[in-house]
């Protein structure tokens, strides 16, 4: 993204009630979900030199508490490390539903997520957000790009998120033969994931993608049933590791196969350089759902 990119500062967060209808209206949804790549009106263009921003968003203690309960975090003075993602997400959606954006939203696959916690952010602080897209690149199965969300307090960088999305179709190929999946690690904990977790997380996060809410709406969009949000899985895993997380750290995850609701998943961890690796897999079949790791190193500028 160029330094002279246009930044549109909004008066308030975009409403989820309008963003998903806008996403459906701006894309050719049903053909995609039968295997045809989903495109938007700006298909021939690259990523736009455009950012959306919100200034001085007050962190509401009640909302933080609701989020913490859904994800399994304890209630603390500082917000959970994944919480600021839900405040930045409406800006991501606003950018991805803009007429200048080259891809339709529905059908994009969130494949990786990276969060840098530069310092704890306290409930009650006023946080400013800026979101832009960058690094459109080829992938064997299509195109990838990053949505970058920056959070600042009084101009100080306190948190940054990077969500990598895959747009399937027209890829470079060269993915190679299907790799054999290794045996999953021994589970340290078994979690029952309830059928309504998509609705509960969607209510608190604002991410009301139909594939997460009900079996019927998920089937309309090509899923066998409702699936869990990837960011809920990441948050739930970090909540299980909460007691060992330092004040500043980086956490990366790769989203694997979706969690079909309801589900029983195994959670495992192992020591890693400067931190800990963790994974989620299907408790019965051993299929991988998520792999990630946190480390104490951060980028300071």
Please characterize this protein's 3D structure.
There is one protein chain. This protein has 301 residues and is an alpha+beta fold. The protein has one domain: Hotdog Thioesterase (Thiol Ester Dehydrase, Chain A, Roll), CATH 3.10.129. Helix content is 23%, strand content 33%. The chain has 8 helices and 11 strands. The protein has helices at 16-25, 29-33, 61-71, 83-96, 197-205, 210-213, 215-220, 230-240, and strands at 6-9, 50-58, 109-117, 126-139, 142-153, 156-168, 189-193, 249-255, 263-272, 275-282, 288-295. The protein has an 11-stranded mixed beta sheet with strand order 1-2-4-5-6-3-8-11-10-9-7, with helices on one face. Helix 1 (16-25) packs parallel to helix 4 and helix 3 (61-71) runs antiparallel to helix 5. The longest helix is centred in the N-terminal third of the chain and has 14 residues, at 83-96. It is globular, with a radius of gyration of 19 Å. The model is unreliable at 25-44 (pLDDT under 50).
List the main descriptive attributes of the protein structure presented here:
301 residues, globular, Thiol Ester Dehydrase, Chain A, alpha+beta, 8 helices, 11-stranded mixed β-sheet, 11 strands
List the helices and strands and how they pair.
Elements lengths: L5 E4 L6 H10 L3 H5 L16 E9 L2 H11 L11 H14 L12 E9 L8 E14 L2 E12 L2 E13 L20 E5 L3 H9 L4 H4 L1 H6 L9 H11 L8 E7 L7 E10 L2 E8 L5 E8 L6
Parallel strand pairs: 1-2
Antiparallel strand pairs: 2-4, 3-6, 3-8, 4-5, 5-6, 7-9, 8-11, 9-10, 10-11
CATH topology, by name, is Thiol Ester Dehydrase, Chain A
**Strand-residue fraction?**
25-35%
- Overall average residue pLDDT: 88
Count of helical regions: 8
